[in-house]
Amino acid sequence: MASSNFIDHVRIYCRSGNGGPGAVSFRREKHVPKGGPDGGNGGRGGNIILRGNTQLWTLLHLRYRKHVTAENGEGGSGQRSSGADGKDIYLDVPLGTVARSEETGEVLVEVTEEGQEVILLPGGRGGLGNENFKTATKQTPRYAQPGEEGQEKLCVLELKLLADVGLVGFPNAGKSTLLSVVSAAKPEIADYPFTTLVPNLGVVAYRDHKSFVMADIPGIIEGAAEGKGLGLRFLRHIERNSILLFLVPADADDIKKEYEILLAELRKFNPELLDKNRILAVSKSDMLDEELIEEIKQDLPEGVDTLFISSVVQSGLQELKDKIWSLINA
Length: 330
Ligand SMILES: Nc1nc2c(ncn2[C@@H]2O[C@H](COP(=O)(O)OP(=O)(O)OP(=O)(O)O)[C@@H](O)[C@H]2O)c(=O)[nH]1
Ligand SMILES: [Mg+2]
Description:
It comes from Roseivirga misakiensis. The chain is an alpha/beta fold and 330 residues long. It is 13% helix and 24% strand.
């Protein structure tokens, strides 16, 4: 089952490299009796770097990397020779990865672009060799700096999905079914609530080789903001989605009311969610005839564009995609 591979949270114990010590050394050459100091600098310790990669959708590949340790820098040596820098460690992550310190909860870095490289933990600076400490009065410094220590931190990497459109609806509304017909994603579908336990992402092909990303998140129920059902954990996945697509099934007792309950839960969770553009789709409308559609139209919520769709008979889907596309690019 693809969805069990959705890993959006990993803890990694990170350690960046120590800087190499600077060297204490003096020039020794046959015809230079009192050679001056020539101890080179130590190399920098390896950094731990996060790098954005659009080919990745989850943090699954980091699941078993419990410890990451970067190399120490090498010590400097005579003849002003600097030590080599410790090798950096690159951790490729999907866009939308946020790294926090487990201890303080503080956000350390965030990766949002392809190829973006951000230093999660910098390696220690290399120490200066004794050639740097020569002064007019001190011609033979027998002192060099030690390298700076690397850093250690228990880091938590979390993925915030960067979907263009997030599906919002009660369990069983047909969210996963919609994703499965408009994208190549194969989410589990069933006629019982909470089939979807973790988010699924799909790339929806649009006209002229364009595409957008749709996120199917687990159903939201009344009280979700207080932790009912699957609770808040997955609501955070739609924080960044640029638009929200509400799905209310055609056989709901009161479409307007269901829509309003969903809105209220989102508002309680994070009022900023309501600033996003939204669309309402009445799903499973293959169960309606023209007459019923007309009836429902009389009592739809105000202030939101509403479409009637059916994933099963594939009706209204092109209009839906057009609408989504125009809002994403609004
Ligand atoms: N008639 C009809 N049934 C549909 C349609 N779309 C989905 N269903 C059915 O509705 C049920 C629920 O579909 P899902 O896609 O699993 O619903 P969901 O919103 O993902 O549900 P959760 O994952 O539990 O939140 C399934 O039995 C689907 O076959 C549709 O367009 N027409
Ligand atoms: Mg589902």
